[in-house]
Amino acid sequence: MYTHTSESRELNLVVSTRCNLHCSYCFLHKNNSYIKEDDNIKKALEDGSFFDNIGKSLDKMNYLKSSFTAINLWGAETTVHLDLLSKSLGRIFNEYHNINQFNFSTNMAYDVNQIIGLLKTIEEVAPRPITVNLQVSIDGPNSVLDKTRMVKNEVIRYNVDQIIDYCNSHVMKNLAIAIIYKTTIPYNIMAEVCSSKSSYVDYVGFFNDEMCRFESRSINKRLTFKTPNCISCAPVAPTDFTTEQGIYAADRARFIDQFDLRQEGLKYFWATNLPLDLYNHPYKYNEQYTSSAACGQGDNVLLFRWDGSIVPCTSAIMEDDPNYIKEVEGDGQWDKGIDTILPWFIYPNRDDISPAEIKRQLQFKKDFWKYHFQYLKTVTLAMMYDMAEIKQISELYRSDSRALLRHGLKIITRTACYYNNMKSNGDPFIPQAGIIRIACNGILEFADVKGC
Ligand SMILES: C[S@@+](CC[C@H](N)C(=O)[O-])C[C@H]1O[C@@H](n2cnc3c(N)ncnc32)[C@H](O)[C@@H]1O
Ligand code: SF4
User: Fold this and answer.
1) Tell me, what's the pLDDT at 4?
2) Which ligand places an atom closest to the C-alpha of 34?
3) CA 129 – ligand 1 centroid, Å
């Protein structure tokens, strides 16, 4: 979670824009400019200019390399050029001497030797302890995966096993690794999974089995396995849930609650109530008053491309490319976003942009995040009240101001995505009504009653 008080920064890097998969919900493989960009990335990693360019940008921004504490890799499939990146790791750990975390997400279906090679290199060259958080995008059992990622679980499992076995046969002094499974669930799949007890148990049971399998196979205490992001799955963005879908999801949440999953022999029987999870349930009540829910992109979190330019969102890696703009113009969903996102890119290395202008842009980002949450809180609560009046969501939010505030603060964790707001509404301060429609039709009331 991004905090405004922290001085530490995250160095996010776009290390590939190519992918071996074609996931149904992913935008990355659907545009040619991503493919072309990948050649530039590969070349810059090969000739070393990738990190030279980022270094030049940081100098121009007057940012110290020592202010970075984490590296996060972004891309299409992050692992396709890991061998090239590994060659620069010694240099990176020395130059950015406060980095102690290395994070990336992978489909785990490309070439596991690239990942093992990276782990080996980190262990060899890291001058201090490094934690690697390895997020594996795996949407569930094959019945789900066949529809979303079109890859078999057996492939992912085989590759995860290679990593476990590697760790089992190596003493790791400077390295701690967490394998973190993550699900991304489109609404129609969520509805399908939750339509019967057996399909639901199939979903939950899958993660239960994976956890048990890990426990029986791994003997290295420095390797851990987590599934929090399957318990709280990510909904596909952009999202435009309808009132009917909201009512259905609320019904499903109650339906699922009737299952006594312990009887199914599930060790992690508590694992998940998918409809509730679409809004990060369960929530910690007190945290809602202090969290900003913001990603902090462009402020403490800087997402660099190979040429040293800074991208405004992990979903907007190529949105300033003229070819990209030409391709998506007129496709409806993206029209508003394209116009509004362009001023949010920062190009520290461009000769026609002065240091004063770079400073202004960076200050703008700082100010933006400082006030974004407060504005959005007000707008979200006002929208909830109005939507309750016209019966798009539960009328509770008109009559019970405590519930309005409590649940409003809850769903801000979803409505505070400035980029998706821009894409949907052309304005970072107007939340997607669909998020409110699905969350405020009884699901959160139900969560309250359950005492979550
Ligand atoms: C874009 S991928 C890049 C890393 C890697 N290829 C992977 O799949 O993990 C990062 C994450 O974004 C998620 N994702 C892709 N398209 C999405 C969308 N339209 N809405 C929400 N998440 C999405 C993926 O499921 C994945 O977990
Ligand atoms: S593996 Fe990742 S980048 Fe590739 S298509 Fe799927 S979500 Fe997109």
Assistant:
1) 41
2) 2
3) 28
